[in-house]
Amino acid sequence: MEFNKPAGENVFDNGKIVGKPMKRIDGPLKVTGTAPYAYERNDAAPDALYGYPLAAGIGHGRIISMDAEAAREAPGVRAIVTTLEIDPLEKGMNNVARLFGGADIQHYHQAIAVVVADTFEQARAAAAMITVEYEDGAEVNLDLDEAFRNVEGTGEPDTLVGDIEAAFRDAAAVIDNMYHTPGESHTMMEPHTSTVDWSDGEDMTVWTSNQMINWNHGSIATTFGIDAERIRVESPYVGGGFGAKLWLRADAVLAALGSRAAGAPVKLALPRPMVMNNTTHRSATVQRIRLAADSDGRLKGIWHEAASYCLPGGRGENATAQTPIFYAGETRRVKNHVIDMPLPETADMRAPGEASGLMALEIAMDEMAEALDMDPVQFRIVNDTQVNPSNPDIPFSDRHFVECLERGAEAFGWEDRNRTPGGMRDGDWLIGHGVAGAYRGALVLPSGARAILSGGKLIIETDMTDIGTGSYTILAQTAAETMGMDVDDVEMRLANSAYPVSSGSGGQFGAPSSTSGVYAACMALREKIAGNLGVENPSFAGGRITAGDTDIAIADVNEEVSAEDAIQWGDFQKGYAMGTFGAHFVEVGVHAYTGETRVRRMVAVCDAGRIINPITARSQVIGGMAMGIGAALSEDMALDRARGFFANHDMAGYEVAVHADIPEQTVIFLDTTDAVATPLKAKGVGELGLCGVAAAIANAAYNATGIRVRDYPVTLDRMI
Ligand code: MOS
Prior knowledge:
Layout: E1 2-3, H1 27-31, E2 49-55, E3 61-67, H2 69-72, E4 77-82, E5 104-105, E6 111-117, H3 120-127, E7 131-136, H4 144-151, E8 159-161, H5 164-170, E9 173-181, E10 193-197, E11 204-208, H6 213-224, E12 231-234, H7 250-262, E13 266-269, H8 272-278, E14 285-293, E15 299-310, E16 331-340, H9 354-371, H10 376-382, H11 401-412, E17 425-426, E18 429-441, E19 447-454, E20 457-462, H12 471-483, E21 490-494, H13 510-533, E22 539-541, E23 544-547, E24 550-553, E25 561-569, E26 579-591, E27 597-607, H14 614-633, E28 639-640, E29 645-646, E30 664-669, H15 693-705
Parallel strand pairs: 1-25, 2-13, 11-12, 15-16, 20-21, 27-30
Antiparallel strand pairs: 2-6, 3-5, 3-7, 4-6, 8-16, 9-14, 10-11, 10-13, 14-15, 17-18, 18-26, 19-20, 19-25, 22-23, 23-24, 26-27, 28-29
Helix pairs in contact: 9-15, 12-13, 14-15
Bound molecules: dioxothiomolybdenum(VI) ion.
């Protein structure tokens, strides 16, 4: 089905199932510990041996020799594969560093061996017996500030609108500041894990924890140079991803090599202390933001230049992603620099680009509001736009940013905020209030599904994943609504490479794309059923199929009917800017003597089209807000510049927000629909919930203390 014009009135407008709060279908399986995660496939691979990885102890250079002789003789060891025994493997999709093979070390904790043994403890003990001799690479400069100074002002701007120099000359107020965001790790609950059966070295089954079945399936074929037909990938339950599991990683590669070597299925989990340097992370950023405004608060110039790092061929973190489009402004200059550095791989993490960019831009907006002596809510309202400011012929498909700010201000009680930095106190705590705008693009991808009507039950098969987001549930709601059936009569089968290719889960495109794909498949099924019944355009409602004289219960359709289709996105969408919008309001307390910041309450307002399921959507947003607390106050990958690795590479040293850090959270969804976005008029919300949160906290901390911190995290040593 091609989506080739804005959605008109349709089945989803009746709001019977789509749009209603519904508890997670997979909830009971998860909370009772019975959902089969990739490392726990005792159902599918009960005899799996244990794999344990060995990781490089240098940042870059090469291996001169490895001695695994003693390890091979250790108790319980079935097989060992070292990187020197294997030709460098091809790289899968978006793998920047090689995952395994050869002597070259491109980053710290690169996988260099896998040990397979009868028990986990035996494998781990044997891995520790392998000795490695390295040759360090040449000295490298890992100073991102210095790199930024070297490239600043060079290269063609990515966006250049108007005479920006003149705008800054003539402005009533100008701000010009540097901002820093640190490297961040996804730190999802479940590490990267796979169980692989490649016992015969021919057909391969991969039970893994991954967001993107089809990409992963193709990457495994590329990496091992085998026919994709021989590979099956399943990932029905995923304990969080946040972007860390978009691509094939070493867990699956090592389990496969170990399985082939041992002639038995092998399961392997990357140990937590290896995840951060072995897999990917969000690059640190250095950002310079200059804003120029009129005395009436209108932005005249927005100048944003940023740098991040990656291994050669990577993408870094584009902190300027939102700047061309979010706020009005006559002139604009935007430039993102990507600096090659031999550090662990950088790639997407929840809201890649905007999450880091808004951490800086939304502080800058606060600073400008203060320079203009304006209410920061009002300042943002004045600078709203209904067209892409870098290309004014392109309107937004649907944008209610102003309403987000107004509704949020009301719900939060913004009128009663502290108006003098450092001027409000509750015992030993200085109280501050902050606001930030939120923006995240609304991407969609092609997405397919198969719909099968069998014995009164509807079965939906698609390779879509549920990474803890609620895909099972919203897809069942979509299918039930489209077929006029009860949700209880829908069986969801997800995340298997044998099923039609979906969008997968990433970039907050999963919900809008995959629900559209299920809708397309169900519409194809309706057509087939109608054809079988010999009727035209029947209605499917209340469990019945009706057309003219025909009126039969879906349960009475005897033969099994199956149809497959995918949603394709028509070019008409290119005539619109599609985004999701929000506003975050935060109250913090900063301890007057220690400088510790605690978040006391949070309000988020989201404008993301039709909300398919308010429970699962709210969970996404409060999860994003929790992640934003970590980003604001504690998360910081500590770089060892001499050796090129992150020193705090576990959950003891890398501190994410925990339950005790999370205050009262209020989430308000605007009652909007975006007919340009998808047939359901829905957009994603899972990344929007993070965007802007950290800046709202930093702004509140400034409001509490009068101390402006532009470098994250806002820790107590910076509150001096
Ligand atoms: Mo997302 S960072 O594309 O999982």
